[in-house]
Amino acid sequence: MIKGASTIYYGGDYSPDQFDLETIKKDIVSFREAGINMVTLPVFSWTKLEPEEGVYDFGWLDQAMDLFLEAGLKVCMATPTAAQPAWLSHKYPEVLPVDQQGRKRTHGMRVFYCVNSAKYRERAAAIAEAMAKRYCKYPNLAMWHVSNEYGTYCYCDTCRRKFHGWLQRKYQIIENLNEKWNNTFWNKTYTDFAEITVPSETNDEFRFNPTLALEYMRFMTDCTIECFENEARAIRRYCPDMTIQTNISGHIENLDQFKMVKHMDIVSWDNYPKPSSEPGLVAMKHDLMRSLKQGASFMMQEQSPNQQNWQPTSKLKRPGEVRMLSYQALSRGADACLFFQLRQSVSGQEMYHGAVISHADRTDTRTFREVAQLGQELQKIGGLFLDGRTAAKSAIIFDWDSWWALEKASLNCLPYKKMDYLKKVYKFYKVFHKHNIPVDFVAKDADFSQYSLLIAPYLYIVDETVAERLKSFTASGKTLVGTVFTGVCDEQCKAVYGAYPGLLRDVFGLWSEEMDALYEKETNDICFDGDIRFTCSFLCELYHNTTAETLASYGKDFYAGMPVISRNRYGEGTAYYIGTDPEFACLEHLLTEIFEETGIGPYYAAAEGVEITCRQNQTASILFVLNWNKEEAWIDLLEDRYENAVTEEIMTGHVTLKPYDAIVLKKTDER
Ligand code: GLA
Ligand code: ZN
C-alpha cells in the first residue's frame, strides 16, 4: 500500500513550469473543486531544474510546492530523469544510446539514453539526491516517482562490455557458457567473454541467435533495475520511509516486471487502452499489475481523461467511460487513480492529448464535469476499499522469459513467424473475466500453494525446479492446465530431449512427436466424442498419450483422430493438456467444466458484459459491479444485502444497472 495514504489518491501529472503563476493558482481552485488531492510533478523538467551541470534552480518548484501545500494537495514527486538535458547529451555524448540498428542516436527523444552510461547515472543520482534533500521535509510530499516508463534498450560498447561482465558472473567460465548455449551450432563457440557481441541488426544475431537475444533482454532488465536503484538509493538517504515507485509503461514487454517491482515499494502503471480494447483485456492488465506484488494494491499512475493523441485515430472517450475505466482500475486493486494530464500543454507532441483542463481553459466542459463527479464520489467512498485485496483460487502463470523467447528472441526459428503472447494468454483470462471468476497471475517461481487451479499457457521455458514445483502442485490434488509449447525448453532455449513437454511429460501423461503449423486462415477441427464441436488454429501438436486419456481429438488432416485435448490423473490431482490454440468457445467449454470440477465459481450470476470484482480490506468487503453494455443489465445479489456506497441505497436480489454504470456496494448485515 502507499505509505501514509488514508484515501484514494486522485489527480495526475501537472507541469507548473509550463504555466504562469495565475494559471497555477486558478488550477488549484479547479483541482479542489474536482476532488483532486494529488499532483505529480515535475516529470520532464530536468533542464529547468538543472540549467547547467551541478547548478540547480529549485525556485519555481518551491513556489509550486508552497501553493500545493497551502491548498492541501499532496505531491507525487517525480525525478525528471526520463529526458536528459540537451546540455548533458552535448557535453557527454556517451549518454546517448545506440539503437538496435547500430545507429548512435542524437539528442531528442525522451527515455533516450544509455542505461549503462556512468555520466547519465551520476547526474540522475545527483538530481534525485538534491531533490530529496530539498523536499523531504514538505508535509505534503506523499511519495516518489522515479523517472518515467523505463524500457529503452541500448547496444553501445559500454553496454556490450557490461554484458560481458554480466555473462561472466552468470557462467563463470566461457566453456560453461559455450556448453549451456550449445555454441557448436553455427560455429558460435567463443574463446573469451570479450568476443561476445550484442544482438543487433549489425550482426543479425537478434534474429538468428535465440539464446543470445534472450540473455540480452534479461541483461537489459537488470541494467534498468540498476538505473532505478541508482536514484531510489539517493532518495532513500533523505526519505527513508517514503513510497518510491516508477510507472510501468502500458507496453510492458521489454522488461521483466516481476523482477522490476521487487525494487519498488508499490506497483505503478500507465493504463492507455485503445478505444477498441475489450474491457477484459484492460482488466487483465490490472490483474497482472496487482499480481506483480502478490496481490498488493497498485497505482494507476496515468490514464487519459479523454482521448490519447498518439493513437492512429484520436477517439473521444464516450460519456461515462472515464468513470467506468477508473472504477475498473479501483475494483482490481488500484489505490491511486491519476490522469495524464491535468492541464493540456499548448504545443508539442502532446498538445492534443486529453487533459482535465484543455486548451478551452475552463471547467464547464464535459471532461472536467466527469472528472469532478468521480472526484466527489471518491472523496466520499475512497477510504472504503483502500488496500483491499482480491481473493482468487485460480492463477495463470505469466512469464517474461517465455514471452521473449516465443515472440522475439526465437521468432525466426519457431514453426510460425508471428506470435502475440499477450493475446494468447488473454484468451484464457477472458474465460475467467467473462464468468466473473477472480484470477491472479503468478511468476513461474512463485508459491502456488494458495491456488487450486493453475494455468500455464505457452510456458515455454521450464527448468527443473519449476517442473518439480508444477508436479508437486498437481500431485497434491490440484489442477494444472498446459498448452502446446509448455515445457519445451530450458533457461537457455535448448529443447529438452525425449519429447515435449519436456520435464512435464509425466505430469501431462503424454509425449509429443511433431508439430504442424497452420497458415493464417487455416483451421483444424476439435471433436469431442467424435462430433466436430470447435475449431483450432496456429499450431497443432501431434502427441501420444501414455497415461492421459483423450478428451478431444483432431477432426481433419492426416492426424485426424489423434488427441488434441487430454486429461491425466497425476498423484491426487489432474493435469489437462491442450495441444493447439483452440477457438475461444472451446476454451470456455473446457475451463467451465474445470471450474465445476474444482468448485470454482463466480461471485454472482449476472448478464453478459457485467463485470464483478470484490476488494476486501480489514474493515469492509466491497463489491464493484460494472455494466459495459449499451443497454441495461442485471446482477442477482441473491439474499445478500448491500449498501450502494455512493447513493446509500440498499440493494439486494435482482438489481438493474444503467448502461455504462458502475456501482460500488458495501456488504451490510442490516435488515
Ligand atoms: C506516457 C507517458 C506520459 C504521456 C502519456 C501520453 O504514458 O508516461 O508522459 O506521454 O504517455 O499518453
Ligand atoms: Zn549503452
State the gist of this model.
The chain is an alpha/beta fold. The chain is built from 18 helices and 25 strands. α5 (118-135) packs parallel to α9 (210-238), α9 crosses α14 (400-409) and α11 crosses α15.
Describe this structure in words.
- The chain is built from 18 helices and 25 strands.
- By secondary structure, the chain is an alpha/beta fold.
- It folds into three domains: 10-156 and 213-381, Glycosidases (TIM Barrel), CATH 3.20.20.80; 394-598, Class I glutamine amidotransferase (GATase) domain (Rossmann fold), CATH 3.40.50.880; 610-668, Golgi alpha-mannosidase II (Immunoglobulin-like).
- The strands form three sheets. Strands 10, 11, 12, 13, 14, 15, 16, 17, 18, 19 and 20 form an eleven-stranded mixed sheet that branches.
- 31% of the residues lie in helices and 22% in strands.
- Residues 148-149, 270, 272, 302, 304, 308, 340, 350, 353 line the site of alpha-D-galactopyranose.
Sequence-ordered SSE layout with sheet pairings:
Layout: E1 9-13, H1 21-33, E2 38-41, H2 46-49, H3 59-70, E3 74-78, H4 86-91, H5 118-135, E4 141-145, H6 157-171, H7 174-181, H8 205-208, H9 210-238, E5 243-245, E6 247-248, H10 257-260, E7 267-270, H11 279-292, E8 298-302, H12 321-331, E9 334-339, H13 366-381, E10 394-397, H14 400-409, H15 421-434, E11 439-442, E12 453-456, H16 464-475, E13 479-483, H17 505-508, E14 510-517, E15 524-528, E16 531-545, E17 549-554, E18 563-570, E19 573-578, E20 580-582, H18 584-598, E21 610-616, E22 621-627, E23 633-644, E24 650-657, E25 662-667
Helix pairs in contact: 5-9, 9-14, 11-15
The chain binds alpha-D-galactopyranose (GLA) and zinc ion.
